[in-house]
Structure formats: structure tokens, C-alpha cells
Amino acid sequence: MNKKLFTLASTATVAAVALAGCVETKSDVKENDGNTNEATGDKVVIELLGMASSEQDLNIVRDQLVKNGFDVKLNIQPDYGSFKAQQDAGNYDIAASSWTTVTGNPDYAVRGLFKSDGASSNVADETIDKLIDEASTLVGDEAKEKYKELEQTLVFDNAYIAPLYISQKFQGIYKNEVNPDTVRLPKSRAQAWEAISFNDVAKNASETLVLHQTMGSLTSLDPVKGNDGSINTLNTNMYVRLVNLSDTDEVVSDGSLSYDHAIAENNEEFYFVLRDDINFAKVEGEKAVDTGDLVSAEDVVFSLNRAKDQNAVPDHRTYSLHENIETVEVVSDLTALESVKTAGGKSILEELSDKVPAAISEAVTAEGDVDNAAGKYQVVKITTPKAFPQVLNYLAHQSGGIVSEAAVTAVNTFDVASYDPNKDIAYGDQAAVTEGATYANHLAASGPYILVKKNDYEATFVKNPAYLAGTENEPKVNDISVRFIADNDSALSALRNGEIHVLQSVPETKTDVVEGDANLVLKTADSNAVSYLLFNTKEDRVTASADLRKAVLHSINQEEFISFYQGKKKPAVSTVTPLIDTGLKLQADQAKVKEFINAYNASK
Q1: What is the pLDDT, as a whole number, of residue 293?
Q2: At 27, is the secondary structure helix, strand, or coil?
Q3: Whether residue 162 sits in one domain with residue 209
Q4: pLDDT value of residue 509
Q5: pLDDT score, position 36
Q6: H/E element holding 337?
Q7: What integer pLDDT is reported at residue 226 of this predicted model?
Q8: CATH number assigned to the domain comprising residue 437
């Protein structure tokens, strides 16, 4: 998931509605006349915008607001494009929204959404801006207190959002063929393919592992040009990064380009000692071929410099994630690593030496001089302009994937300022890997798999033969098909029939179907997905009033959502909640609703 707003994705069925009998329908709700405007007798009219897929959530919100004296008009759009058009036009007072923090850090959970210059923000508040910037520099208890202050200001003092719930993750596995113990379900990062194995390990070399995603039109296979559900998982498995997220959101070097990483005590300098057992792969004759080109420090410098440069590529969609990188350089002097200390008192050299196969005797700058077995390593140093420890989480995002400088520059020969998508081919364009006249696969993969070709039905991947061969992170399965199935019910049927082997996202309302099928296993994990109501604060909307927004806020009863979803949701305060428990709670309170409605009416 990604730096953009997503609509709520409730797919509740009629059966689920029957089970959730505590939720009232519109006809059941007795409207409360206590919050009318005493001068006119009119109720406050609220326009609630959402998608058809979130209709059950919208109905619950509507009923809660009606019970508290509002007149609610639903604006339900059939799809995301229509919803976004209405939102961009400002045709709403409240928009049903959600956000998943795929980087596992709280800065990503707020910066793009609520900072004045955020890519998806409609909040313009200097105090919020300051708190976001201050919190990003802190760790531990200091960070927790600052994010608590931010939540208080964002939610309770100003009611810029009204939280609904945190979702959980549910994954279905066809256990007749695939070993469930090898299928990971991380909290934040995209699905990791390299660990997955068939029950019969002999099939890893002969059978195709079939996975699934809803979107078949791919934004871009250049990791910096896409940040959405069509490519996040694909690019995560095609490009290696300097660090990864564990399944519980710790930043680790496991399965990454680095043996280890270290942070200077000032939280402004970050060091990575690179391994020499990953080469780029390319496609020849629909097979993956080892290019012999090491994924090197030079490629890291090239990749991260373009990641942080808005003008490096046309339609750069992820530069804001990496804007806190000031410099990326290759270390040439070991004494520099000995003189810099970590917060724990060790030197950077000591910290980086813990997991390397041979003692670090030389820091080399040229790719041709690398020889880990002989103690010759490349070390990359990243500097931020201020203390910013959360830079590591952004490096673990798919947009931090390391691309081949040679491959990218060979394709991107156009001038970025005059780029014409009708005639210019950019690195990662899906047309270059789509079967037919446009096919000319130019990809160079640094990760465990490379995309060979795609059509409207599936994308075909093969194992990178030069990715961590002989290690525990060497990919187990040779061939993977990612099947494009837009409808969740159809995808679940395909899983039950063994047509796909893993369904990464099982709807809450269908978990009992998976649990009741002897051929399947259901896995559950926490997630960073928060659903909330976003207020339109433009002057011509009633929700420009903070008092009115607070009345809506205290009308929300999260327990009704949790009950409707049969305990499969959790309470939220903001998008930070799954990452840091600040101790704040939202409680429905009719007395406060009336207090704020009265204040709103008095100000008119």
C-alpha cells in the first residue's frame, strides 16, 4: 500500500448483515431532534462520500450521525475513479478513507496525509506540520509522547479526521500443495516470495506457484514510478533493498543487499556493508540469465539519488519518501568507520563487522575490487540533513529497490522535461513486458525474481539464478504466475479449487469459508490499515467548522463496527495507532455531540 488515499474496502454480505444484528438500518433509526438549529428548526445536513464497496461502513456511519441529530445524504460512487473525481471536486463534507502504512514507521503514517504540503493532504495547520517534523527525529518514549501530542491535536483538538477502526490481515493457503509454514504474512511489507515452497520440494523446480492480485494493469516496473497495489508486491520481489522489514516491522538486514547496517549516534549518518553474492538478472528467451553484473555500491548511489530527485524520471511518485536523504556515497577510508560512534558506544566499523563472512580489511570503491572472502567490502553511507532515524523504514519500501545503472540509462535516453509517453519508452513500462508487438523486455532484476512477460490474465516470473545462491534466502520455487482476478469472491473460489495457491487478502466476511475448508489454512496477522472519515475543511462546507467536526467525531461508536465485523477490527485513534499506542481513546459521547452542535449553531 502507498502514499495515496484508498477508499474503505468493506465487502460485507447479506449473511454478515444478518449476523451483525446490532447495526440498525435507516428505517430502524429513530431520529434525535435534539441537535436542530434552534433558530431555524433545520437539522445540519452532512454529505457523506464513499464507494459502493464500502456501503456497509457508510450505513453504520450514517445511522450513528442520524441518531445524533444530523441529516445525512449519502454520495455513493461505483468505483475508485468516480470517488476520487468527486473528492477532488470537493463534493463532500466527509469522505470515507483508509490508509495502510506499508513502511512500518509513523512518519509515513502522517506526513503525506496531514502535512500542509503532503501529497494526499487537505490539512493546512502549522502546528500539525511542526509536530510531524519534530516527531520524525525522535525514537523511543520521546517519539511516543510527541506522536501522542500530534494525535491529540489532529483528532481531538481539531477533528481533522474521525477514526473508525484498524483492520486485520487474513491470508488463505491451499495446503494440499503449498507448505503453510513457508508462507509469510508480514504486518507491513509486501508478500515475500522467496521463502514459499511446495510440500513436495521436488515440485519447486518443476511446478508453477500461482499467486494472485486484483490489478492487471501495472503502473510501472521502475520502483520509483509506482506506489500502488498494482506493483508494490511485484517490485518488492524484483528489486533488492539495503534493508528489509521483518514480519513485525523491525528494520533488519536479513535477505537484503547488506550484511548489516549501523546508525551513528547523531541519527544523521547511516552505514551499510554490502554483500557480493547478488547479480542482476535479465530475460533471454523467456528465461532468467545471470548478467554477471554485481549489484554494487555504484548502483545503490545511482538508485537512491534518483529516488530522492523529483525530476529524475517523468511521473516520479515516490520522491517524497526519500526527500530526507541528503547524500549517498561510497566509503573509501576504514578510519572514517572507526572514528564514528553509535549510540551504544561501538564504532561503526565494529557494528558492521558482526555478521560479515570475513573481517573487514579494506573499504573498496570500485565494483571490480570487491571480494568479501578476502575482506574487501563496499560500504555505503547515507546522510540526512537532520536526525531522521525513520529513513531506514523508507529504504525498506519497494521504492528503495536497487536498479541497474547500466540498464536504466540504456533505456531512459529521453529528456525528462520533454518526455512524451506516446513515443518515448521508459524503463519499467509495462508495454515492454506485455505479449505482442510491444514486447521488448529490458528489465534488470536485483531481487529474487524477474518478470518475464504478462498478458491480461497473468504475469510470469522466474527465479533470479544469481540471487543469494546457496543461502537461506535463495528463492525456493523456480516459476511463479501472478493471476489477475479482480473479484474477491472469484479469487476465493480459485483458491478453494487449487487454481491459485495463496490468497493474500481474504475478506473478513469470508474467513469462516476458509476455516471450514479442509484443503485450506487461514493465517491471521495485525496490519497497519486504518479506516477513518476525512473532513472537507473548505470554507463553503459545514465541516469547515471545528465544532461541527467534533460533533461528528464524538458521534462515532467504534464498538458498533467491531461488533459488525465479529471482532475482526480494532479501535483506532489515527493512522499512527497500529504503530504506536499513545494511550488515547475515542469514545462516543452524545453530551459532547450536543455541546459542539450548540457551539456550531451559536457561531452561525
Answers
A1: 98
A2: helix
A3: no
A4: 85
A5: 52
A6: helix 334-339
A7: 86
A8: 3.40.190.10
Q: For residue 251, what is the enclosing H or E element?
A: strand 251-252
User: What was the pLDDT predicted at 118?
Assistant: 84
- The answer to whether 277 and 469 have CB atoms below 8 angstroms apart is yes
Spatial distance between the Cα atoms of 343 and 400, rounded to a whole number of angstroms: 25
Cα 170 to Cα 510: distance, rounded to the nearest angstrom: 10
Question: Would 88 be classed as within a structural domain?
Answer: yes
Nearest to 587 by CA among 560, 548, 547: 560
Examine the domain organization and report whether 244 and 337 are in the same domain. yes
Distance CA 106, CA 528 (A): 10
163 & 182 share domain:
no
The answer as to whether 201 is a domain residue is yes
- Is 317 in contact with 376 (CB distance < 8 Å)? no
Per-10-residue mean pLDDT for the chain, 604 residues long? 36 31 37 44 88 91 96 92 90 95 94 89 94 93 97 98 97 98 95 97 98 94 92 97 96 97 96 98 96 98 97 92 96 94 96 96 96 98 95 96 98 95 94 96 98 98 98 97 94 97 92 97 96 95 96 98 93 97 96 96 88
Tell me the H-state helices in 378-464: 391-395, 405-411
- For 293: left if phi > 0, alpha if psi spans -120 to 50, otherwise beta; the answer is beta
Terminal C-alpha separation, the chain: 41
Check residue 7 and give its pLDDT.
Answer: 35
Residues in contact with 418: Cβ distance below 8 Å, sequence separation at least 6, in sequence order: none
Shared domain for 208 and 289, answered yes or no, is yes
Contact criterion met (CB below 8 Å) for 432 and 283: no
Residues 109 and 223 in one domain: no
91, 134: one domain = yes
Shared domain for 215 and 149, answered yes or no, is no
Pairwise CA distance, residues 583 & 577, whole Å: 9
259 and 400 part of one domain: yes
Containing structural domain, residue 129 = 14-167+527-603
Looking at the 3D structure of the chain, how many domains does it have?
2
**502 forms bridges with which residues in the sheet?**
173
pTM over 0.85: yes
Using DSSP, how many helices (H) and how many strands (E) does the chain show?
17, 21
Q: What residue has cell string 572514528? A: 339
